[in-house]
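Colleagues,

For the teaching module next term, I've prepared a clean inverse folding example: a structure given as tokens, and then the sequence designed for it. I'd like students to try predicting residues themselves before seeing the answer, so please don't circulate the second half yet.
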């Protein structure tokens, strides 16, 4: 059975059992701070497990995209470890329980998949007689194929009864497959969450018993296809082959070697990168960005150790999109963007890597020079964090030099960075409750949003959140911390999809509340602000009024982002997908995929296109529809966002159609004026346009006209000639500066090469010249150094200083034989320049620096002499 067939067979089977087929959650959950990436199928149903989720279904089945980073070092080494993988799961939220879960698992495996019974074995928790009896007495599995295991193996969380944490937990039953030439592999885990742990060994039955199962798609596919490794299944073989091909290596010849591990790891990491970047997760210095940067760098370093010196990883996404197209057809549209991001990051890392390998050699030399054979942990971590060289590579290369790494010191240096690379959360955090969860039990559907129809509505106060606790009332407290007022119905738009939250007022009998911001949490609209007058009580009737003029300015900016998106596709191409936005009153920020700067000419065309669309005055319409229908109509979606089953489609004329929950204009003509302020890079392969609309755009244009008028008046030319006049003035200034340099007076104290040689200081057979050269510029000092090199062939170290216009210039040079011995002119200057309040550097044989404290020149001369004497061993 092909992997794609297995995925569909699983979902179809459980749909036939009444489970609602749900789409995979995004890889980075937007509303779950307990995880960096989605690590399991159950994560998107945490609220359903707590009885607080969507009441329209009580059992579900999914194929979830997952990323786990806890075993990165084993990827490619073992048959099963993968960074990105797919997890098949079926779930029950107080509906079916243990008996159905076990019977359905048996039916799916033995009937739907036709796996011979004798190839399956099972484990149950030591004390779970119920699960054992179902497998043995009802299903008919022989006792010798059922093994009872302890809490560390067959309980979730592992070891919970004895070691905790407190909270929801339960026994599990694991299913194993073994076949000809295939070692036993766990393919499915059935978790029966039926207890609440309140203390060591104290398990209380839950009123709602749940089912949470997980079957690794790749593992199960490997078993069904009779291959010993996940990397050999039908969808993964092309990725491994492509990785080997771009590296120019015959995979069959290196499969069982270290290079085979590296090739498999490159294919795995490339797949993880492809899915992450598709969802707009960019390589970066922290959190998810740090993780995927680490994956990319590890793959590039692996290739580097195989002799690859050019970027290669960016060539794999097309193959990955093709292999994964049955489950994820949307990937193909993002391939150009993904390749651009990966290629830029590869190029950047390869530049750093060349420096890192050099730094590694310096670290080895420094260690030996200090009389030690132990590389400091801090040095090893600096190589890891700054240059991307993993510590195991440092260890390996150090061993070749009869050195070792202080791993305790490395771990200590790494401690502060450890959290950002952790891909899963502590089990105790998974089902953490907030005060709003309590409110959710009473108001299951949250707050009703009425803002599409208007800016004022009646509602009832159903919650008062004060200092993260629910309160019965709140009163006027000048200068006090903000609180959140929650209504059952509200016209206030809560910050979402890049659009900022509304502001305004909420009034009721005896109180007035000023809304300073609006957020959303657990389907509740949180009106954040302060009681401006009186006291507000729970269940009070209130009138919520949005600041209408501000809302209108936000609507102008938001509708303009859709027009801008359309214009970008027209002038840049379909690859210019939206990667994020920020919509404020008459101001917008729009991020999009593009490998290079847009350029002034194309920016002007884009701006003109948006304004031409505005002038059509086309109507803006919206309606709700099933997401499948919306996609069939061609509505654009933002990758990396989790959309509900029913979505809102906003259409502008016949030129724009997008999934969007924000507030929009009645017609595009109400945008008024669209003005681009600038364009810049925000990440590899991602650009950002900042623009204004409406009144803000008009104000900006008026200000620009005023400045232009003032400049024209000062230059005494018509406004149309300002640019040409400024260009002419700049050219005139350039000419005058050149003439001034040519007329520069001779130094008041002429210094010759012979004079410098005569004043040289011998240091350990070297000739050292360190002195001030009054009035000389850097070019003249370099000429003197060249003359000294012709006069003194070997062993020459020279550093000259000069003052001009209150600033200090320094130039240093070394003869080739001293450079070959490890001396470095740039490093010499780095020790001297700070004395005169400056800095600089350069090549090993010639370097230049500047300073701003001429009074310290004598001190700098002394520092230069001390530094070179130390370098020469004096």
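(Answer key — instructors only)
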């Amino acid at each position: 059975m092909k992997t794609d067939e297995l995925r569909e067979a699983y979902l179809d089977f459980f749909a036939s059992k009444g489970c609602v087929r749900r789409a995979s959650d995004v890889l980075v959950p937007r509303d779950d701070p307990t995880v960096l990436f989605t690590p399991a199928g159950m994560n998107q149903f945490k609220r359903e497990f707590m009885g607080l989720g969507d009441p329209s279904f009580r059992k579900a089945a999914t194929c979830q995209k997952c990323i786990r980073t806890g075993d990165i070092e084993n990827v490619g080494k073992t048959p099963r470890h993968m960074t990105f993988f797919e997890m098949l799961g079926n779930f029950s939220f107080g509906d079916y329980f243990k008996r159905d879960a076990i019977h359905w698992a048996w039916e799916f495996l033995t009937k739907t998949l036709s796996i011979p019974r004798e190839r399956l074995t099972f484990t149950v928790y030591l004390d779970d007689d119920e699960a054992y009896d179902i497998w043995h007495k009802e299903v008919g599995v022989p006792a010798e194929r059922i093994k009872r295991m302890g809490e560390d193996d067959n309980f979730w969380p592992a070891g919970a009864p004895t070691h905790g944490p407190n909270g929801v937990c339960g026994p599990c039953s694991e299913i194993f497959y073994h076949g000809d030439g295939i070692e036993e592999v766990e393919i499915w885990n059935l978790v029966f969450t039926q207890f609440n742990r309140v203390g060591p060994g104290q398990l209380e039955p839950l009123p709602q018993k749940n089912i949470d199962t997980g079957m690794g798609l790749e593992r199960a596919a490997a078993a069904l296809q009779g291959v010993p490794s996940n990397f050999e299944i039908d969808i993964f073989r092309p990725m491994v082959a492509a990785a080997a091909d771009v590296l120019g290596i015959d995979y069959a010849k290196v499969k069982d070697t270290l290079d085979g591990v590296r090739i498999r790891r490159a294919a795995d990491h490339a797949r993880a990168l492809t899915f992450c970047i598709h969802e707009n997760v960019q390589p970066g210095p922290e959190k998810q960005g740090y993780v995927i940067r680490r994956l990319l760098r590890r793959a590039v370093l692996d290739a580097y150790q195989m002799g690859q010196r050019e970027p290669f990883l960016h060539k794999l996404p097309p193959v990955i999109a093709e292999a994964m197209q049955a489950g994820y057809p949307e990937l193909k549209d993002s391939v150009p963007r993904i390749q651009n991001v990966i290629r830029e990051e590869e190029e950047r890392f390869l530049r750093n890597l060349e420096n890192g390998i050099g730094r590694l050699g310096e670290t080895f030399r420094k260690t030996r020079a200090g009389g030690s054979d132990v590389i400091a942990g801090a040095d090893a971590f600096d190589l890891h964090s700054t240059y991307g060289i993993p510590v195991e590579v440092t260890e390996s290369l150090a061993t070749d030099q009869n050195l070792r790494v202080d791993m305790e010191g490395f771990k200590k240096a790494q401690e502060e960075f450890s959290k950002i690379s952790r891909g899963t959360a502590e089990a105790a955090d998974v089902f953490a409750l907030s005060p709003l969860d309590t409110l959710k039990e009473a108001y299951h559907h949250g707050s009703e949003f009425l803002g599409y129809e208007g800016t004022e509505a009646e509602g009832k106060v159903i919650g008062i959140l004060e200092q993260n606790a629910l309160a019965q009332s709140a009163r006027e407290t000048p200068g006090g911390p903000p609180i959140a007022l929650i209504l059952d119905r509200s016209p206030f738009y809560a910050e979402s999809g890049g659009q900022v939250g509304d502001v305004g007022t909420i009034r009721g009998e005896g109180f007035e509340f000023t809304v300073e911001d609006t957020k959303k949490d657990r389907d509740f609209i949180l009106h954040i602000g302060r009681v401006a007058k009186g006291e507000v009580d729970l269940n009070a009737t209130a009138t919520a009024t949005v600041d209408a003029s501000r809302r209108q300015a936000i609507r102008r900016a938001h509708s303009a982002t859709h027009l801008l998106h359309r214009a970008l596709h027209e002038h840049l191409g379909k690859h210019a997908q939206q990667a994020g936005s920020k919509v404020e009153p008459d101001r917008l920020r729009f991020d999009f995929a593009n490998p290079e700067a847009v350029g002034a000419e194309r920016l002007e065309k884009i701006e003109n296109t948006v304004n031409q669309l505005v002038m059509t005055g086309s109507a803006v319409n919206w309606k709700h529809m099933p997401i499948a229908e919306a996609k069939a109509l061609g509505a654009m979606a933002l990758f990396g966002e989790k959309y509900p089953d029913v979505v809102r489609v906003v259409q502008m004329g016949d030129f724009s159609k997008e999934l969007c929950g924000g507030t929009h204009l009645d017609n595009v003509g109400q945008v008024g004026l669209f003005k681009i302020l600038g364009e810049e890079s925000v990440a590899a392969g991602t650009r950002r346009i900042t623009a204004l609309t409406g009144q803000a755009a008009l104000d900006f244009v008026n200000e620009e006209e005023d400045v232009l008028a003032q400049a024209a008046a000062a230059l005494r030319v018509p406004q149309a000639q300002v640019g040409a006049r400024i260009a002419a003035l700049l050219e005139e200034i350039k000419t005058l500066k050149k003439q001034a340099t040519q007329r520069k007076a001779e130094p008041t104290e002429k210094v010759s090469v012979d004079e410098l040689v005569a004043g040289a200081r011998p240091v350990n057979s070297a000739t050292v010249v360190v002195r001030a050269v009054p009035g000389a510029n850097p070019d003249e000092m370099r000429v003197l150094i060249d003359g000294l090199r012709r006069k003194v062939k070997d062993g020459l170290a020279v550093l000259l200083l000069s003052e001009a216009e209150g600033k200090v210039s320094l130039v240093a040079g070394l003869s080739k034989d001293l450079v070959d011995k490890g001396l470095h002119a740039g490093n010499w200057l780095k020790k001297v320049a700070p004395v005169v309040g400056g800095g600089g550097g350069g090549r090993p044989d010639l370097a230049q620096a500047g300073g701003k404290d001429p009074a310290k020149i004598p001190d700098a001369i002394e520092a230069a002499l001390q530094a070179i004497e130390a370098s020469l061993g004096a």
